[in-house]
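Assemble and predict.
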Amino acid sequence: MTARTERGGWAALARRRLAGFVVATVAVGLAGGGPARAEPSAPAARFVDGLGQKVLAVLRDGRLDRAARLERLARLIDEATDLALVARLVLGRYWREASEAQRRDFVALFRALILKTMAERLDEYGGETYEIVGVQPVDERDSIVSTRILRQGGTPIAVDWRVRAEGGRLLLIDIVAEGVSLVVTQRSEVAEIAGRSGIDGVLAEMRRRLDRPA
Amino acid sequence: METEETGFAVAPRAIALGLLVAGLAAVPTARALEPFDPLEPVNRVVFGLNELVDVMLLGPVAEAYGELPSPVRTGVRNVLDNLSAPVTFVNDLLQGETDRAGTTFARFFINSTLGLFGLFDLAGELGHPAHKEDFGQTLAVWGVGEGPFLMLPLLGPSTLRDTAGLSVDQLLIDPWTAVAGDELRAARAGSEAVDTRHRLDPVIRDVRRNSLDPYATVRSAYVQRRAAEIRNRRPATGDPRYESIFREEEE
């Protein structure tokens, strides 16, 4: 991935740390200072802000060691995210072809890889703060909460959080960092491998990634 | 010599580019945000070569560059951004974004003078943040599809549309092409490559470490990122290609 020498996608990505697996941003990016401009009227904005505050509290709690911190962040992700749905969307059209066992394996591996990425990113937190800049309804279920991650001496990173209302509660279903969606990107990776070597090939590649030391 | 080069020799190239651009309009666009990549086998080979160049040369140079004091790097970035202002200005106008063109012009004026040839982003401090436009984006605004994805040697991910746009920017729009000599242009391109690579370092590490298929990640991220730039950063809500993904479990 050599850099483009002229302006363009890559140059822009630089400042903003695309996050191949942006869910780690829940842990690292969103953790920041106060909720500068939350719109208290919108439930989705309150949900994202509440999540950000909880993540922040975990990251800033000096009494927690690394393992305890990771465990609490994992719990927050499980509570706030519809990981089963995200995994299913990432598997895309191959979800329909997958057997029950393959689906179960995929969801479990998907979660494990997100947690592994988060663990690797944990030390990168450098005092970022965030502000909520707006919320936009998409349809009767989904809305997009737009935030800006503010870094000292850096250009702000625009991160959109797609939130879905499901059974009376709100759950996170996608994160879009500077226009790059977690679901879309990973779906593209998975489709590429599944097209070559099937769903079992995808599962094998995920296991390989999981076993690799950080 | 340079002036002759750009003044005359460019004409046939411009015509060729014009034809290319006209042809692009007929090109199919990606569906469901899956990049259209008919040249994938070739692109993957080029991606591998780019990776090699990156590991052998660009990566190490960018790492050394990262050791420079941060104000020095900021200055380099500011100068490079300022040099790209004329291209942004022209493309702002071509897209009918007159307010943004005004901002670009004011930024260039302020930063080139009080900002000491662009070394300091004074205009940014004064509340006029930078943005970038290029002819690839202009073509998109004009309704030209992105065409096939291309992995360019050394330059990295692109599409047929963006490659055509880059050529138009460099050959026809960018005034520095006419003014600067080969050495200066090479110095600028080199600095741009090193600085960009340096800033991308966390992303590149992340992709190499975590992606199931780095080529697919880069391709998808590039196409999405460009779409976001063309929307001028507005969220992807309403993009039917994006929205369809979140409705498919109902099918």
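The first helix of chain B runs from residue 2 to 24.
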